[in-house]
Design brief:
Elements (H helix, E strand, L loop, with lengths): L8 H35 L2 H17 L1
């Protein structure tokens, strides 16, 4: 008496295809959110203010 189910070739391929599609979608979604983060971060002019305040605080502490 067997308790486990044997998968045929068709079922194995369908399971592999579904997991592959899921992984690809995760990569695309992560890449899209990473792209949005970097675009918004670059547009915010944060670098200019961080750099400016870093130099001013560095110079004022070393004088």
């Amino acid at each position: 008496m067997k308790t486990g189910r044997k998968y045929g070739e068709k079922e194995k391929i369908q399971i592999l295809i579904k997991s592959l599609i899921y992984r690809i979608l995760r990569i695309y979604i992560f890449s899209f959110y990473a792209f949005l983060f970097f675009v918004l971060f670059a547009d915010a002019e944060v670098f200019k203010y961080i750099f400016k305040h870093f130099i001013i605080s560095y110079i004022s502490h070393n004088i």
